[in-house]
Amino acid sequence: MNATELANNLHEKFGELVSAPAEFRGEISAKVTDSERIVEVCAFAKKELGFDYLVDVSSLDNCGEDPRWTVVYHLYGIGSKQYLRLYVSVTEEKSELPTVTTVWRTADWHEREIYDMMGIRFHGHPDLRRILMWEGYPYFPLRKDFPLAGKPSDLPEVAFSKPAPLEGGPFVTVSGGKDSIEREPRVRTPEN
Amino acid sequence: MAQLVWLCPVACMKNTQEFGYDSRIEGDVIHTTVDAAINWFRKNSIWPMPMGLACCAIELMATGASRFDISRFGMEVMRFSPRQSDVMIVAGTVTYKMAMSVKRIYDQMAEPKYVIAMGACASTGGMYRSYAVLQGVDNILPVDVYVAGCPPRPEALLDALMKLQNKVQREPLVATLKKPGPALAKA
Amino acid sequence: MAEVQEITVRDTAARAQTAAQSLPPAEDLQDMQGEKMVLNMGPSHPSTHGVLRIILELDGEIITKAIPDIGYLHRGDEKIAENMTYTQFIPYTDRLDYLAPLANNVAYALAVEKLLGIHDKLPPRCQYIRVICCELARISSHLLGVGCFAMDVGAMTVFLLTFTEREKIYNLAEALSGARFTTSYTRIGGVSRDTPPGWCAAVRKFINEVVVNIDEVETLLTRNKIWVDRTKDVGVISRADAIDFGLSGPNLRGCGVNYDLRKDQPYLCYKDLQFDVPLGEVGDCYDRYLVRMEEMRQSVRLIHQCLDKIPGGFDNAPKEPVNVADGKIVLPPKNKVMSSMEELIHQFMLVTQGVNCPPGEVYFGHENPKGELGFYINSRGGGTPYRMKIRSPSFVNLSILSHLLPGHMMSDTVSILGSFDFVMGECDR
After folding, report:
1. Contact flag C180-B153 (C-beta cutoff 8 Å)
2. d(Cα B159, Cα C347) in Å, to the nearest integer?
């Protein structure tokens, strides 16, 4: 069974909930429309379709668009040797979705990292706290509106942070520009 | 300056190379200062405290391995205990999360202590100009020698250690010992 | 300045009596549980292979709870990636798993090339050179892994032996790229330069010598009673647990799971090369050590085959290309840049704006010595990624610690950490 068939299987079982699979560079992705039901979809994928290995859980900040967050799950079946990507959109007001640690225990640390870096919460998570930055760090660094240089913070006896000397922001090309004029390198501030 | 009469063992005077004095004329005696003698002992047995954080730690380990033997300088005793070491070699990127631990360990070292900032990340933050990296360990510690490189070659680290040895040699030890330290000065 | 201090020496018998009076009555002592001690195996520790902090709750010698605390080397690589072009990010990939930087370079270059759609269209010489680099990095990483593992358990000689061989790999890397490690050797669409003359012969000479060294290490460790006692049946991970926790690399194969990306998702020219994948049986520290030793031998076998088959031969007399011949991806040759308009424009665009990647997202998993290093690149067009997520094997491998350590003794922690062979630079990014 190759990945397209497995993804179609998923689409048929869940109907509206899982979109028809799309393909890019040999990889199959499917969108899950309701973030609250992600656990059902993942449990089915693990038990029936054999995706027993969760490779990665990532998050995207579509700053300026609504819904703001996209959480991306990369699944792999060790028996079938196929990859599948599932992604789910979460709006900014909600910023929360259920945890999949009941399906794969490896999601534990991945979700903690997403909470730490982006601020998306996972309800039902056994131990949701910061993992890479220290407890009490007030910001979520990977958000697009957080500058690369960082912001000052101070937590006595624990840690402090100061902005790095980037002298006004990294000077680099902007991604997503339509033509080379739009992609001219310029100072990147969180606003663009 | 105190003068010390020093009796050298006869065995080491066998070779007749000229090195400052001739034993047939002056006898088996060297005059030197207490400072020079004690600093000579100290500089040839500096015990490092390797604060090996990132990639530079691997070059530090390579310096300790057999090719770039750090043992020739008497520094192979890489004790991870701050109480027993003289120099802290900060090797690698110091993040804000790690900074307090580094400072705490530095405070636990006994005087006289030195710091070598090894590599670009420890000296100035290196190529990581980001929200999580302390831009140079000299924001929290007084650094004696900076070593450039990413990572610096073991020869560069050995050169830095030799510069530190020169610094130790120049220390006016007896003058500082004659003054009471801060703890005793209060009494 | 001398002061006379009064020191009272209490009578020891009296002291013992007062202590005995404060204990509960004898019949209650059997029910009393010893107080658990919380021990902080701090970020600065000789055996933690970097800045890992584990908060251990001990009941005597037995660990009852273990909470790993990471992030002491979090440098913000993913945020930096959003602000750098693809080529500018290559030096940061070196410093991820800093024990095998050539492998990280290859993994990243392949991920970006997959996004561009050219990862299976690389010139054959480039593929063979990259495979040789990956396998050399594998040998280097495993040598250090086994060396540091042995040093932590107490066998110092192994560390010095393996470091001697690693110095030879450093010489090869220095001849190839200019730096001992942190090579930044690959580029998008190829490698930065062809192998220098005499390099392939030096690699052949080296792998003949490293086999001798691997044998030496095996005679010192494999049937050594102390080593076996300290590593056998310590840190046993079951197959189901290993897959559930997402382990990869030798840690997963030590449990008997046959998952090697070079065989299951072949990339570069691994399809044309013969090698075996060593698997463990029990999943303890000893198995993981044996898997690493055997993987080194398989890497030697792979490099022999690559050197025999490399297109262009050892010194590339027929001048086979090592870069994709596309001016929009690879910097054109300098003599053309200085004389022809089209190449000048390509050079200008590539340097200022980076390689123009199509919008889309890819995930590419690479078989790194530590496990599966994956790059998830989400691009919206242009020369910088919109989001780059680095799926690091050490991050995922360490998540099993809170499940694995309880029940073991304090000194087993060192064996387990050594057998896991993780690197904090990769774990924290």
Report:
1. yes
2. 40
